[in-house]
Design goal:
Elements: E1 2-8, E2 13-20, E3 23-27, H1 34-43, E4 46-51, H2 63-70, E5 74-76, E6 87-88, E7 94-97, E8 100-106, E9 115-120, E10 126-132, H3 147-150, H4 154-169, E11 177-180, E12 198-199, H5 200-206, H6 215-223, H7 233-242, H8 247-254, E13 257-258, H9 260-270, E14 273-276, H10 280-285, E15 292-293, H11 300-308, E16 315-318, H12 324-333, E17 339-343, H13 347-353, E18 362-363, H14 365-371, E19 378-381, H15 385-390, E20 397-398, H16 404-407, E21 417-420, H17 425-436, E22 442-445, H18 448-452
GO molecular function, one term: sulfur dioxygenase activity
Domain Rhodanese: 268-359, 373-461
Keywords: Metal-binding
């Protein structure tokens, strides 16, 4: 028997590959199937089952394409109602995989169909728990995402989650290994650990949600401090439940090389958004007017989903050379399948065409320290609320990037302001959006708060971020 975690940092997502005696199962696969198919061929095993812990909200799973290419059935837990052929398993149903068994534990609460899969080894010993979004390390699944679909309040769903955890998960042996669907950085929880694997015994000791005195206290604890979920979540749930375009077709369409003239014409004719995935340093120096910067070297896909929202939005790509396929693939993971092509040769092609080029007014942290007048100048901090609460520039305004579509209209275009995040990635995203919408009276600070903190700019007293919600 072999268990392998396939972790994708950009999405803070864990898929799992389990083999035993020539048979394999894959749990919560990502959109692109080639890595799994290659692994199966390399190991000389046949895929017997594709297990889905629930209808995911933060990414599009690869279950449909993987099933079509291998013939392996898709398995959901009780109450799931996918609009494609699948096995909807009963609670406690057993699936045999080589010489091991996988037991279905229906654990509603995060969503109604949420299910954990318990691995029993060759001797029938309870060995590993693939806990999906029911149990994370340090946290549990948020109970507010499925309210509309379940016609329940988040408190009612939290009550179901309590029953699932305390009646089905906590009684399991301490030595059971917990393999969650997500880790720190995912919007599916609020207090996840950076580790991606742990023992259930350790979680029983340190996970706040598993140490509540009663159901009422649990409901209060898990519903406090929840931030609004990214707006694209509902669209990803629909795709996972109803179906989606074949990934190979999505990739083929996106890998369409365009000249500068062709890209410009396509943007005008289709209303496509020009998405520049280069580093914030390169983008600041020059970019296609009206384009938006979300760098590949960061939490690219989640930010695309959070800020662009509509998965049907036509997109044209500007990338570093040989990064086009990676960009199309990572967009598809969150359901953005309508990539119409990319600028062949990268931004250099646009420069050589003689077309208009825009840039961002960016200064160093040292220049900012010399220029800014605290109490007189306006400073906008686009980091998360928890980062701002821990420490920030005196008199700075907290305007998290995730909510820019809400606060942007409150900006006075006549009043100059400074803009920063932690290191420059998020503030450049904000700067590109602001400039695309006609706001130009601002200065963005390179290096963000990490660099500013090394200057003499007045700051608030530091508070450890473990003491504020993430």
């Amino acid at each position: 028997m072999k268990i392998e975690q396939i972790y994708t940092g950009c999405l803070a997502q864990g898929a799992y590959y389990v083999t035993s005696n020539g048979e394999a199962a894959i749990i919560d696969p990502l959109r692109e199937t080639k890595p799994y198919l290659d692994r199966l061929a390399q190991d000389g095993v046949a895929l017997k089952y594709i297990f889905e812990t629930h209808f995911h909200a933060d990414f599009v799973s690869g279950h449909l394409d993987l099933s079509k290419k291998t013939g392996a059935p898709i398995v959901y837990g009780a109450t799931a109602n996918p609009e494609f052929e699948a096995i909807v398993a009963e609670d406690n149903q057993i699936f045999e995989l080589g010489s091991v068994k996988i037991k279905v534990l229906h654990t509603p609460g995060h969503t109604m169909e949420s299910t954990c899969f318990l691995l029993l080894d060759e001797n029938g010993k309870e060995t590993a728990l693939f806990s999906g979004d029911t149990l994370f390390l340090g946290d549990v699944g948020r109970p507010d995402l499925a309210q509309k679909a379940a016609n329940m309040t988040q408190e009612e769903l939290a009550g179901l989650l309590y029953e699932s955890l305390y009646n089905k998960i906590l009684p399991l042996p301490d030595e059971v290994t917990v393999y969650p669907a997500h880790g720190a950085g995912s919007a599916c929880g609020k207090n996840m650990m950076k580790e991606t694997v742990d023992s259930l015994g350790n979680q029983k000791k340190m996970n706040y949600a598993l140490n509540q005195p009663n159901k009422e206290a649990f409901i209060k604890a898990v519903t406090e401090g929840l931030l609004p979920p990214p707006a694209y979540f509902g669209m990803n749930v629909a795709m996972n439940k109803k179906g989606y375009s074949n990934f190979d077709e999505v990739l083929n369409q996106g890998m369409n090389p365009l000249t500068a003239d062709e890209l410009e014409t396509t943007a005008e004719n289709t209303g496509a958004l020009i998405l520049d995935t280069r580093s914030n340093q390169d983008f600041a120096k020059g970019f296609i007017p009206q384009s938006i910067n979300i760098g590949l070297n960061g939490d690219f896909a989640p930010w695309v989903g959070t800020l662009i929202v509509d998965v049907n939005q036509p997109i044209l790509l500007v990338t570093d050379r040989d990064k086009e396929e990676e960009a199309v693939t990572r967009l598809s993971r969150v359901g953005f399948d309508n990539v119409l092509g990319y600028l062949s040769g990268g931004f250099e092609t646009w420069e050589k065409s003689g077309k208009d080029i825009d840039s961002i007014n960016r200064i160093s942290a040292e220049e900012f320290a010399n220029e800014v007048r605290i109490g007189e100048n306006q400073v906008i901090d686009v980091r998360k609320e928890s980062e701002y609460a821990a420490e920030h520039i005196e008199d700075a305004f907290s305007k998290p990037l995730a909510y820019i579509n809400d606060w942007i209209n409150g900006i006075d275009p006549k009043q100059h302001f400074y803009l920063h995040c932690a290191g420059g990635y998020r503030s450049m995203i904000a700067a590109s959006i602001l400039q695309a919408r006609g706001y130009r009276n601002f200065t963005e600070v390179a290096g963000g708060f990490n660099a500013i903190a090394k200057t003499n700019v007045p700051k608030t007293n530091f508070v450890c971020q473990s003491k504020v919600f993430n």
